[in-house]
Amino acid sequence: MKALLPIAVLLGAVGAAWAMIELRPGMLPQADKSTRPMVEIVRVKPQTVRLNVMSQGVVTPREEIDLIAEVSGKIVELHPALVSGGYFEAGDLLVMIDPRDYDFAIVAAQANIAEAKRVLINEKALAEQAQSEWLALGQGEASDLALRKPQLAEAEAKLSAAEADLAKAKLNRSRCELRAPFSGRVLSKQAGRGQYLSAGSAVARIYANDVAEIRLPIGIDQLAFLDLPRNNRSKHRWPNVTLRAEVGGRLQHWQGRIVRSEAALDGSSGQLFLVAQVDRPEWEGPGRAPLLSGLFVQAEIEGVTREKVFTLPPAALNSLQQVKVVNGERRLEFRKIEVLRHETDRVIVRAGLHAGESVVISEMPMPVAGMQVVITNTQAVENP
């Protein structure tokens, strides 16, 4: 027995040393496979992605004006389309004001011109006679008054004034006809047949339906993802935009473009408004509903592209901007990453990952660095 004692002591020392090596700080024991956490992963690969920017706004006409009477008088004629929702074409006679008083004014102005011409002819004859008589006297240089130059100038001025009165009378007569300055629709009507209008009275509110506009608020942090010209006069191409809204229980979409930015940031929100336009908004075709004024729409603006980035589902990222990477030994590593942008259904990673690495995308109750895991989706494809 005494001979075996040294051997037993030696074996015990060897066992203790092995245990100390295997269980030294920072090392975890090899867990039984049945007790290892099960995880789902995605193998990341660098991609080129387009970073579109989302916004929303209300559809408005590009032009919306009040149809204003420039002269006073009674309405004697209204276009049949001058009702709320009515359509009209550019140049259509929408409102006719009683023109008789203005026709009389034209006749009176023409008579005044005739009288002014008669006076001018008479003054020219008298001026020529005065000059001839002065020359016959041979008394040197004649004064303007002797040659009737002031009287002649007055007659010429009166003729010019009479002609101006005629032009004004004709202008007022033309203003009896309120014609559509563009093709469009009637938003509302404020006057009817037989009503007397004063100059400056609104007859109707109309808008052009050739182009619709939508003001889209953009946060300052999102401007980095848009390729915008430096000013509205630049020939640089503005981005396209897709508008979406539910109409009649169906999701509709319309294509448009950004055409300009507003001059300053909004004082209350600190956002910049971009203006989108859609041509022929009320055109209705197969699968396309009209884009009506007043409709609230969601907008997706074409953004810039970024190369060599990675995309992950939001669940892969913790509150410390870290992801869990499974290494070749099936152990967890916590990796700090640099996020380019958070989106609703994905996180775009700028730095911190390498092609082919496995990132955990499933929930783990108590993850610990270095712990072994079991990958349940061993045939995991690379992230799309």
From TrEMBL:
Xref: SUPFAM superfamilies: HlyD-like secretion proteins
Pfam families: BSH_RND, RND-MFP_C
Molecular function (Gene Ontology), one example: efflux transmembrane transporter activity
Protein name (database record): Efflux RND transporter periplasmic adaptor subunit
Residue ranges of domain Multidrug resistance protein MdtA-like C-terminal permuted SH3 in the record: 324-363
InterPro entries hit by this protein: MdtA-like_BSH, MdtA-like_C, RND_pump_MFP
Keywords, in A-Z order: Coiled coil, Transport
Segments forming domain Multidrug resistance protein MdtA-like barrel-sandwich hybrid: 65-204
Family under the similarity heading: Belongs to the membrane fusion protein (MFP) (TC 8.A.1) family.
Record's GO cellular component terms: efflux pump complex
Entry coiled-coil feature ranges: 113-179
Cellular localisation: Cell envelope
Species, as recorded: Methylotuvimicrobium buryatense
